[in-house]
Amino acid sequence: xxxxxxxxxxxxxxxxxxxxxxxxxxxxxxxxxxxxxxxxxxxxxxxxxxxxxxxxxxxxxxxxxxxxxxxxxxxxxxxxxxxxxxxxxxxxxxxxxxxxxxxxxxxxxxxxxxxxxxxxxxxxxxxxxxxxxxxxxxxxxxxxxxxxxxxxxxxxxxxxxxxxxxxxxxxxxxxxxxxxxxxxxxxxxxxxxxxxxxxxxxxxxxxxxxxxxxxxxxxxxxxxxxx
Length: 227
What we know:
Layout: E1 10-12, E2 19-20, H1 22-35, H2 43-49, H3 54-64, H4 72-83, E3 91-92, H5 96-105, E4 110-113, H6 118-127, E5 136-138, H7 151-159, E6 170-173, H8 176-185, E7 189-192, E8 208-210, H9 216-226
Parallel strand pairs: 1-4, 1-6, 4-5, 6-7, 7-8
Antiparallel strand pairs: 2-3
């Protein structure tokens, strides 16, 4: 029996790639800090802490403040009560919705692989009306592993119908975590340069980089052709 696998899937990171969520994360962090009478952190500080998931975010917050390490668990719980539905300050990057729609119309299976917990991920996708575009959504708590471990990305790609032994897919992200995850999974990486990256572009392994999602459909077609 012949098995037909999906055309080249495209999997996206979320925070710093499709959305600028740093202002909401910043507001939620500072709301928790106020409860503990700790001076607020700046937006740039918090933006620099994003990428490794909520647990790592708060390890970095604790390290940057006078909060005790043993308070970490309670801080995360307090943060999550606010973060779960925090969308008022979050914005889609320009042309994201159009680019996703174009790729979907051209038959590319779309997925999401993020270190953001699955609950807040689904809330923000619904908020922007783009949830229906993604056939597979892998959050930071969907598996025991988080990026840059390749397991979440491999799960997303497999869920989109890629060949299990030789997956043909693309990963689109903005950060060092995303680049390393794609590399670990053996997949081509497209780098969005307006996100939360701290490393110079030339030091990250990528097939192409872009600063405007209007360019993405063409880059995907070019990268898929190479693959």
